[in-house]
UniProtKB/TrEMBL annotation:
Keywords: FAD, Flavoprotein, Iron, Metal-binding, Oxidoreductase. Residues 180-353 form the FAD-binding PCMH-type domain. It comes from the Bacteria. Coiled coil: none annotated. Its EC number is 1.17.1.4. Residues 1-86 form the 2Fe-2S ferredoxin-type domain. It holds the Pfam family FAD_binding_5. NCBIfam families: xanthine_xdhA. One of its GO terms (molecular function) is xanthine dehydrogenase activity. The keyword Flavoprotein applies. This is Xanthine dehydrogenase small subunit. SUPFAM superfamilies: 2Fe-2S ferredoxin-like, CO dehydrogenase flavoprotein C-terminal domain-like, CO dehydrogenase ISP C-domain like, FAD-binding/transporter-associated domain-like.
């Protein structure tokens, strides 16, 4: 079946689709929609921002995404808006008019991306409850004209939009999968976990793609061939969220932007960590399960979830199995996922009343940057004694990893500065980090220990600067 999506209210069907073709290229070179620009081809600058709509709760939920790293089949069952979609009877949208009158555009190259991010916020899309500056963290202006752009976003912060007809169209096309052949390779868009499990039983070598925030760069920068591909964005089961008194259970396909408020309720540090995972466009595409399944040693999500005691459920055509999240990561580039298996869900226990938690990432740039070190601490303190400890780090080893010696130095000891110092010293024997462009081995060891010290200081009421935590 063809890739089917809605563009400006019109149903578009593409019979022959290269599964590694990007939405950006199709817009510019096949549809003549050149307002969407390519700036970086890696999802960092936001010049290529478009809005993708999904049928949810009887309406349409719009999300700003980077079209430069969105594969064309990922549009199947969705709606699309580009900067050309915003024309009103006067030929210009109120937001665009405000930006023009406010001097919000200089060279103009990045302007369509800013317009689309701000428009998504104004119509109540993902991120509409966020400050303008947070919504635009994933949009870069090389002329540095941020002041007038922010002012325009704050001036036009609400725009009416009637998507009733589009919601009806989406309800029809969203529940049907798609598949195709290109260059001898197959690609699939399943719509249920049962269908996904069946496909993986037949094609255990298939590449699974959820948000493509990492895999997209394999193609745009590495020019890699992906072979058989299965796109997961239409599998409704994987987007389920269940919140109970005991735990938060997330389907592996839950986007980070959608999980943000749930994570923040588990603990404010976890909410702040998620807020800094890329720009909004990245969080609108990237999924919690994809961040785990990818197995990156510098992924921000896994260290925090490991420290909180998360469990992972994997599924295949033959059944399910559950494991502690830390056991999933075996070595660099190697995870405990058998042929035919996929990550189905993540269960995160709700912290107890005696939990002392600190989660932080250190990066060279505060927003939209990869971590040099990400540390997560979860201590149980009862009557002044540390009775349990879970300490995990990213960026310190070949995988996200617990700090066993540090934990041993904490458990059974009084919750005191002396204990924290002893555990910080033990931490140096837990890891032998690499030196790379994000930081030296010595820097990582020192800042990892400092994160533990910050936990102690914060518990003593000492204010820790958020910006200070960005650069270690």
């Amino acid at each position: 079946m063809s890739v089917t999506f809605i563009l400006d209210g019109e149903v578009i069907e593409l019979a022959e689709v290269d599964p590694t073709a990007m939405v950006l290229d199709h817009l510019r070179y096949r549809m003549g929609r050149t307002g969407t620009k390519e700036g970086c081809a890696e999802g960092d600058c936001g010049a290529c921002t478009v809005l993708v709509g999904s049928a949810e709760d009887g309406g349409v939920t719009w999300r700003a995404v980077n079209s430069c790293i969105q594969f064309l089949p990922m549009l199947h069952g969705k709606a699309l808006l580009t900067v050309e979609s915003l024309k009103d009877e006067g030929g210009i949208n109120p937001l665009q008019r405000c930006m023009a009158e406010n001097g919000s555009s200089q060279c103009g190259f990045c302007t369509p991306g800013f317009v689309m991010s701000l428009y998504g916020r104004a119509i109540g899309g993902s991120g509409s409850d966020m400050p303008v500056a947070d919504v635009l963290a994933g949009n870069l202006c090389r002329c540095t004209g941020y002041g007038p752009i922010l002012a325009a976003g704050e001036t036009v912060d609400s725009l009416p939009r009637d998507d009733a007809a589009m919601a009806e169209l989406l309800a029809v096309i969203a529940g049907v999968g798609a598949s195709g052949t290109w260059g001898g390779s197959r690609w699939y868009v399943p719509v249920s976990c049962e269908e996904l499990a069946s496909l993986l039983a037949k094609h255990p070598e298939a590449r699974l793609i959820a948000g493509a925030t990492d895999v997209g760069l394999w193609v745009t920068k590495g020019l890699r061939s992906l072979g058989t591909v299965i796109f997961l964005g239409s599998v409704a089961d994987l987007a389920a969220i269940e919140e109970t008194d005991e735990a938060l259970i997330l389907g592996a396909g839950v986007r980070y932007a959608d999980a943000h408020s749930y994570f923040a309720r588990l603990h404010p540090d976890l909410g702040e960590l998620v807020r800094r995972i890329g720009g909004l466009q990245v969080r609108n595409a990237g999924t919690v399960g994809g961040n785990i399944a990818n197995g990156s040693p510098i992924g921000d999500g896994p260290p925090a979830l490991i420290a909180l005691g998360a469990e992972l459920t994997l599924r295949s055509a033959s059944g399910r199995r559950t494991m502690p999240l830390e056991d999933y990561f075996l070595d660099y580039g190697k995870q405990d996922r058998q042929p035919g298996e996929f990550v189905e869900s993540i269960r995160i226990p709700r912290p107890g009343p005696d939990a002392v938690i600190h989660i932080a990432k250190l990066s060279r740039r505060f927003d939209s940057d990869i971590s040099a070190v990400c540390g997560a601490f979860n201590l149980t303190v009862e009557q002044g004694t540390i009775t349990a400890a879970r300490v995990a780090f990213g960026g310190m080893a070949a995988t996200p990893k617990r700090a066993a010696l540090c934990e041993a130095a904490l458990v059974g000891q009084p919750f005191s500065e002396a204990t924290i110092e002893a555990a910080a010293e033990a931490l140096k024997s837990d890891f032998t980090p690499l030196t790379d462009v994000r930081g030296s081995s010595a820097y990582r060891l020192e800042t990892a220990a400092n994160l533990l010290r910050r936990l102690w200081l914060r518990e003593q009421g000492v204010t820790i600067s958020v910006l200070e935590m960005a650069d270690g």
